Description:
By secondary structure, this protein is an alpha/beta fold. It has two domains: about 1-60; about 80-160, Winged helix-like DNA-binding domain superfamily/Winged helix DNA-binding domain (Arc Repressor Mutant, subunit A), CATH 1.10.10. Helix content is about 30%, strand content about 15%. It is built from five helices and six strands. The strands form two sheets. The chain has a four-stranded mixed β-sheet with strand order 3-2-1-4, covered by helices on one side. The protein has a two-stranded parallel ribbon with strand order 5-6. The model is unreliable at about 170-174 (pLDDT under 50).
Amino acid sequence: MEYIYKMQSPVGALTVSSDGVNILGLWIEGQKYFSATLGGEFLERRLPIFVEVERWLEKYFLGKEPDFMPSLAPQGSAFQKTIWNILCKIPYGQTTTYSEIAKQYELQNKNKRTSARATGNAISHNPISILIPCHRVIGKNGDLTGYAGGLDIKRKFLQIEKINETYSIKDFRI
């Protein structure tokens, strides 16, 4: 059974989904691919895992780095899951690029080639916004580029994390 919970945030209404133990999705209302991985049948309930997500988001929106992570189980292809796993390793308050994520993927997969474009496509389908920090990925020239929730929301997340307006790229390595 899949469960959902709706909550308000400084960036608008959020919908979170869970299997009762793990977070399967977290979407900002109106974002691209909203609830794309949500199953056909679900119940709306406030479960302990949703309380944990609320606590995490409360710290995050106060500009504090959360010191815990709810259990995540995003649904997607093996390639997507690998990319999302790399995203989870981008430190709070730092950014990286699509091409750097692609390089990290290649290093983890015995130099199996991928492009920044394919990486960007996987990132854009991230079903767990905010917790899996796809907002920390910027263009290689420091440009603020695509975000399923919109660039204004991406900018807000970067401001919350006190990432300066020039979006300087940190040397991100796993």
